[in-house]
Design brief:
Blueprint (H helix, E strand, L loop, with lengths): L1 H14 L1 H20 L2 H39 L6 E6 L8 E11 L6 E8 L10 E10 L2 E4 L6 H4 L4
Antiparallel strand pairs: 1-2, 2-3, 3-4, 4-5
Helix pairs in contact: 1-2, 2-3
Length: 162
């Protein structure tokens, strides 16, 4: 049994989250096929487990990205034009904790909602400041707080307009 589990565990570690759904589906499908004696049942269960695992992983990734984007948007909302401030996100599971700097470029007044355009940086690991990557984004006021207004996961905000 160890001869089978060890290579699969190593493949999962090397493949990361992308491989987790495939491995879960393969194990569930194989186990169901062995238990039932029917490969079609095993195939169906394996596909179902793979789909559910993949959807769960996507949900976790989206919720983590939303938390990061909400943190950056909150900092954008607190700045005056030309001002800069640090941002940082600490997840409950300490993987992917990131930090950087936000600089408010301009305030965009429009009829739909007040928005702000800002540059933000993301520091990767313990690299020096000179290796920061800078990005441009927009945050808009939504109900009672500033929200990320560019692409996903803002789709819920803009619905089919995006």
């Amino acid at each position: 049994m160890r001869r089978v589990l060890l290579p699969l565990a190593l493949a999962l570690l090397l493949g990361g989250c992308n491989l987790a759904a495939d491995v879960a589906g393969a194990f569930a499908g194989g186990g169901a096929a062995l238990a039932s004696g029917n490969p079609a049942v095993g195939f169906g269960i394996g596909i179902g487990v793979r789909a559910a695992t993949s959807a769960g992983i996507r949900w976790v990734v989206r919720s983590r990205h939303t938390a990061e984007q909400d943190e950056i948007a909150a900092v954008i909302g607190s700045l005056a034009p030309g001002e800069s401030r640090a941002w940082e996100i600490r997840h409950s599971i300490p993987i992917g904790n990131e930090r950087g700097e936000v600089r408010l470029v301009r305030i965009l007044d429009n009829a739909l909602a007040p928005c702000r355009e800002a540059l933000f940086s993301v520091e990767e690991g313990d690299k020096p400041d000179s290796t920061r990557q800078w990005f441009l984004t927009t945050a808009c006021w939504q109900e009672s707080r500033w929200k990320w207004a560019a692409a996903e996961p803002a789709t819920a905000r803009w619905g089919s307009l995006q």
